[in-house]
Amino acid sequence: MPFEINESLSIPDDLIEFRAVRASGPGGQNVNKVSNAVELRFDSALWNDLWPNARARLKRLAGRRMTEAGMIVIDAQRLRSQEQNRADALERLHTMIVAALVEPKPRRKTKPTRASKVRRLEGKTQRGKVKVLRQKKFDD
């Protein structure tokens, strides 16, 4: 069953691979016996439904989690069971892809208003007057 991103996008199952690995950190004997951590591997290079701008944003968002070949690797070991870690890894992948799909608003250049320029100059004048009052006056 494909992994749904939104109503128009889904990831085929053959592009997502899970591997159970041993978790690090505290957990007592359980951490030494059971492979609860999950490593999710998603081959974004083979996913053709993603348009180029979103692909570039996904690469920037993934950062060091994306390999040179376009494979996104997510390690999930925060939770105690393998099923919970698997769901956590999928949720993190989903969040990353949804964030990459959002088109950033273009920035419009603006100029300061005339009133703001006047306020700025008045502030500078006021500050200059304060500094003049602080100066020592010497009579000749």
Kindly describe this structure:
The chain is of the alpha+beta class and 140 residues long. The protein has one domain (3-101): Double Stranded RNA Binding Domain. The protein has 4 helices and 5 strands; from the N terminus they run E-E-E-H-E-H-E-H-H. The chain has helices spanning 29-33, 52-62, 82-101, 114-134; strands at residues 3-4, 10-11, 16-21, 37-43, 71-76. The strands form 2 sheets. A 3-stranded antiparallel sheet has the order 3-4-5, with helices on one face. Strands 1-2 form a two-stranded antiparallel sheet. A hairpin with a 5-residue loop joins strand 1 and strand 2. Helix 2 packs across helix 3. The radius of gyration is 28 Å and the shape is elongated. The termini are far apart.
How would you summarize what this structure contains?
The protein has helices at residues 29-33, 52-62, 82-101, 114-134, and strands spanning 3-4, 10-11, 16-21, 37-43, 71-76.
Topology overview:
Blueprint: E1 3-4, E2 10-11, E3 16-21, H1 29-33, E4 37-43, H2 52-62, E5 71-76, H3 82-101, H4 114-134
Antiparallel strand pairs: 1-2, 3-4, 4-5
Helix pairs in contact: 2-3
